[in-house]
């Protein structure tokens, strides 16, 4: 009886039920996962097709902090001179204005089923052309530069696209770095003077991102969170992949490989021909603005061909085919969203604009572009609806002021900072200092702060006046000024003379107090003389960029 009882094996029967229940749970889980995936996949595709703006993050990158005076190594009384309000106003020479209430409210509008949205309904994407090939060869000396820079501004609310060209030779500062550079060399600054574009895309990301951060300032502070970079070979490959382009050529040129000549008029251009056309330098007016205008027109022509032939959808595949020469921080989904948006966009809603300015020779073969401030402000107002301020310290007049005493001021400040940092290192290592040495340090530090304050405030205030004054951009330019304008220029000249004398006195005091400190603590001597070429002096431009 017990044996019969035991052979009923009730546990096995329960196990069978448990197994069936488990199978149902597993199948249900799979169906649930598939359902969720299908739902979110549908939502994802729906966003790409119908709401492309939701594919882009609202958050912008954290601004790069500007460099500030180093902190004192000892608790010493720091003498800070009083400043009037007029000097304080120049603390932000780029004039980045806060958003208006209306703009702030719009930026908070987010679709109910999305965590992302383009900034104010506007998305900026930087398009950069690098003068290099896949193997690292470059057409401009030892370093490849971003010789073509366009900001593609997509306004999803108004269904418009603005293509804004930035002059490659723009005289500019760089966030987080000391010195003055050409805009097309900011890429090299971000790479610490990297000589080649070969390597993984991630290796070059810092260069591309720094170009975006720098260009943001030229747009009045509007964020440029995304970028595409292309080298020569990628452009050639892409144009060849779409079968070339029929284009009305405006001047004779030779192909990039110099093997074929093209005349004025309608031509069929392959990739090598397009690249040669975009690289024309001998324009009739001799200005780079003509070349950038050709680049904008060619880009629009390529877009129209792809759109008219229904080939815009091929762009992601073209990017994949030429990925060895294309660099971007966008995802495939984001690129697809932009492509789908472009396919629906009326070509007449694509507007091209360009910042421009006078070209000035600075040293040897170096030529800088000094952006026309009114043109810049008009573009920012028309495209973004904000009011910015002129950029004074990137004007021709300020560059002359730098050559007169500004570069030497920067040199003095950086040399003294090295001494002050040496004292900090000795102190951190446990070295003791006498009361006399601390007193010498205090004198040196206060002289350093005094000169630094003049550079931060008085120099910046002078730069702001340069931007607002009707100065002659070219040395030999003949321009009739009103009596009021002539009086304003005279006032600025007098201020220059006073500031020059005051700065010289501060530099003289700083040099003596620093040398007294150096002698007392027996540390490195200072070099007060500028290099023959200021841009090769590490105390001025901390990253050397070779444009030769």
Describe the protein's architecture and organization:
The chain has 15 helices and 14 strands. It has helices at about 1-5, 10-50, 85-90, 100-105, 185-190, 200-220, 230-240, 270-280, 290-310, 315-320, 330-345, 375-385, 395-430, 435-470, 485-520, and strands spanning about 120-130, 145-155, 160-165, 170-175, 175-180, 225-230, 245-250, 255, 260, 265-270, 325-330, 350-355, 355-360, 365-370. A 6-stranded mixed sheet has the order 11-6-1-2-3-12, with helices on both faces. The chain has a two-stranded antiparallel sheet with strand order 4-5. Strand 13 and strand 14 (about 365-370) form a beta hairpin. Helix 14 runs antiparallel to helix 15. The radius of gyration is 30 Å and the shape is elongated.
SSE topology string: HHHHEEEEEHHEHEEEEHHHEHEEEHHHH
Based on DSSP secondary structure assignment, what is the total number of beta strands? 14
Task: Note the total helix count.
Answer: 15
Strand order in the largest sheet:
11-6-1-2-3-12
Overall, the morphology is elongated
The major pleated sheet works out as: 6 strands, mixed
Total individual domains: 2
Given the helix and strand composition, which structural class is it? alpha+beta
User: Do you know the CATH architecture of the largest domain?
Assistant: 3-Layer(aba) Sandwich
Helix coverage percent: 40-55%
């Amino acid at each position: 009886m017990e044996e019969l009882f035991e052979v009923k094996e009730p546990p096995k029967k329960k196990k069978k039920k448990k197994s069936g229940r488990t199978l149902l749970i597993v199948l249900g889980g799979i169906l649930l996962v598939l359902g969720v995936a299908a739902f979110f996949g549908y939502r994802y595709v729906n966003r790409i097709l119908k709401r492309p703006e939701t594919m882009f993050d609202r958050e912008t990158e954290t601004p790069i902090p500007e460099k500030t005076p180093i902190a004192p190594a000892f608790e010493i009384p720091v003498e800070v001179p009083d400043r009037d309000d007029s000097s304080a106003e120049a603390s932000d020479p780029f004039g980045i204005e806060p958003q208006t209430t209306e703009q702030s409210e719009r930026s908070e509008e987010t679709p109910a089923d999305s965590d992302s949205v383009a900034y104010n309904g506007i998305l900026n994407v930087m398009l950069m052309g690098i003068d290099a090939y896949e193997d690292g060869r470059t057409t401009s000396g030892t370093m490849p530069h971003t010789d073509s820079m366009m900001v593609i501004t997509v306004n999803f609310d108004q269904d418009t696209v603005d293509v804004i060209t930035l002059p490659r030779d723009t005289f500019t500062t760089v966030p987080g770095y000391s010195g003055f550079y050409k805009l097309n060399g900011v890429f090299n600054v971000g790479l610490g003077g990297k000589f080649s574009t070969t390597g993984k895309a991630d290796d070059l990301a810092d260069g591309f991102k720094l170009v975006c951060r720098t260009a943001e300032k030229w747009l009045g502070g509007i964020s440029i969170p995304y970028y595409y970079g292309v080298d020569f070979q990628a452009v050639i490959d892409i144009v060849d992949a779409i079968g070339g382009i029929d284009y009305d050529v405006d001047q004779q040129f030779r192909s990039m490989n110099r093997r074929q000549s093209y005349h004025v008029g309608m031509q069929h251009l392959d990739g090598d021909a397009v690249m040669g056309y975009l690289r024309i330098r001998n324009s009739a007016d001799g200005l780079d603005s003509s070349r950038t205008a050709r680049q904008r027109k060619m880009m629009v022509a390529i877009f129209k061909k792809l759109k008219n032939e229904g080939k815009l959808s091929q762009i992601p595949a073209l990017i994949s085919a030429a990925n060895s020469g294309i660099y971007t921080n966008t995802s495939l989904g984001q690129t697809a969203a932009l492509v789908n948006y472009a396919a629906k966009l009326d070509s007449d809603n694509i507007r091209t604009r360009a910042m421009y300015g006078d070209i000035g020779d600075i040293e040897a073969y170096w030529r800088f572009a000094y952006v026309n401030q009114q043109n810049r402000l008009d573009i920012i107002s028309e495209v973004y609806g904000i009011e910015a301020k002129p950029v004074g310290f990137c004007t021709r007049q300020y560059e002359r002021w730098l050559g007169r005493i500004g570069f030497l001021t920067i040199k003095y400040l950086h040399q003294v900072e090295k001494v002050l940092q040496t004292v900090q290192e000795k102190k951190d290592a446990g070295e003791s200092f006498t009361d006399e040495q601390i007193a010498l340090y205090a004198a040196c530090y206060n002289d350093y702060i005094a000169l630094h304050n003049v550079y931060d405030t008085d120099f910046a205030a002078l730069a702001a006046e340069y931007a607002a004054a009707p100065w002659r951009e070219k040395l030999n330019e003949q321009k009739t000024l009103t009596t009021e304008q002539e009086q304003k220029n005279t006032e600025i000249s007098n201020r220059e003379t006073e500031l020059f004398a005051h700065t010289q006195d501060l530099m003289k005091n700083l040099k003596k107090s620093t040398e007294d400190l150096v002698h007392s603590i027996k540390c490195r001597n200072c070099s007060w003389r500028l290099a023959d070429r200021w841009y090769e002096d590490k105390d001025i431009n901390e990253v050397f960029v070779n444009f030769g």
